Amino acid sequence: MAASQPSVTFDTPKSVKALAAELPSHDNSINPIYTFQETPNIVNDEAISAEDGTLPTIDFSLLISTNPEERSKAIQDLGRACQDWGFFMLINHGVPESLFKAIMDGSAEFFDLPEEEKMQFKGKGILDPINYGSLRVGNVSFWRDFLKVFLHPQFHSINKPPGFSETSFEFGKELRRIVSEILRGISKSLGLEEDYLHKELNLENGQQIMAVNLYPPCPKPELALGLPPHSDYGLLNILITNGIAGLQVKHQGKWVKINPLPNSITVNIGDHIEIVSNGKYKSVMHRAVVNKENTRMSIATGHGPALDAVVSPAAPLLDPVNNPPIYKSLTYREYVELLRYGKLADGDKAFLNQLRI
Q: Which ranges carry the Fe2OG dioxygenase domain (predicted)?
């Protein structure tokens, strides 16, 4: 990446939660470091305006149905959702609602810990298995605190609050079950063998990273962002929330506000599905906005190949004349390590585009 591009760092002097708590109730100002309006390489849209929209819905029970016609229809719907939106709502997924509540409650307890206790989990880089902090791109900070934990292939967890480790383990296991079946459906929808992605990308040792995000009420939500526009690296990202909206998706050139269905899971494809599909399915830009009244919490769990897996356009999809490869091959580790040099700062999938042949 060019040296002039903004750097990405994961620490600020004080958490956003602590900063928000210190603001007087009558104070409608925020520190200028959280203001994005004069940073056109991060946000090119006017404030945070967006239209209401509805994502495609995929019924997981039909995706794993033993009825061939039901499953075939679900796989076709999945392929269309990946091609048209890059996002979809997953229903009838079988994850107990009680597990969603437990992981949300435990996450809220973590963010309620004293600052000095949370700072024990501060990491230094993108591949640290446990990392607490907030995000800064160049000179702009974002209205979000996060805790990132690697759940697979090696399970890591924090030792507080009580029970969080056990809940995280069960949560990760349930999501891997779902992701495994979705990726079989995506493989099939592309015309590949069902287990193509599992075998080629060594998904038995695939990376699973849970990012717990806290977006406190913001006095000036029109000036700040929770997360800048970005696409997700990896294969699939799974998102659940505490019911407060904030996700916006770029669709057909416009920002769309997403309101999740009760007990649904929001799923989006990542950069590496775009590479494997040779551009047929594209990772999609999205961002997190904040509000003045409510604390928003989300848990985003990214699922990727094994770190040493080489990711390239799927050979069975390629044709020298009609569908030549448009992306170079790169190990997943190389891709992830290069993200620290400013992929989030560009806001236009610049690094993925640099892999174009």
A: 205-305
The predicted pLDDT at position 7 comes to 47
Nearest to 231 by CA among 269, 277, 176: 269
pLDDT attached to residue 49: 66
Give me the residue label for tokens 């063998």: 193
Kindly give the interhelix angle for 164-189 and 68-84, rounded to the nearest 10 degrees. 100
Nearest-5° angle of CA 255, CA 258, CA 261?
165
Q: Which residue has the higher pLDDT, 341 or 321?
A: 321
Q: What is the pTM of this model?
A: 0.91
pLDDT digit string, tens, across residues 243-253: 999 999 999 98
DSSP string, 186-220: HHHHTTS-TTHHHHHTTGGG--EEEEEEEE---S-
Domains of the chain are 8-354 (2.60.120.330)
Rounded CA separation 353/349 (Å): 6
Contact status, residue 266 vs residue 94, Cβ threshold 8 Å: no
Cα–Cα distance between 284 and 355 in angstroms, integer?
17
> Could you report how far apart the first and last alpha carbons of the chain are, in Å?
17
Count CB neighbours of 324 within 10 A. Answer: 11
Yes or no: say if 260 and 249 are a contact pair by the CB < 8 Å rule: no
Do 144 and 16 form a contact (C-beta atoms < 8 A)? yes
d(Cα 102, Cα 92) in Å, to the nearest integer? Answer: 19
Res 346: pLDDT: 44
CA distances to 115, 124, 168 from 120, in Å: 9, 12, 19
For range 55-71, the mean pLDDT: 97
191's torsion region: left (phi>0), alpha (psi -120 to 50) or beta?
A: left
Can you tell me whether residue 23 is helix, strand or coil? Answer: coil
CA–CA separation, 275 vs 34, rounded Å?
33
DSSP state of 124: S
Distance, CA of 243 to chain centre: 17
Please give the angle made by the CA atoms of 269, 177 and 309, to the nearest 5 degrees: 55
The three-class DSSP label of residue 73 is helix
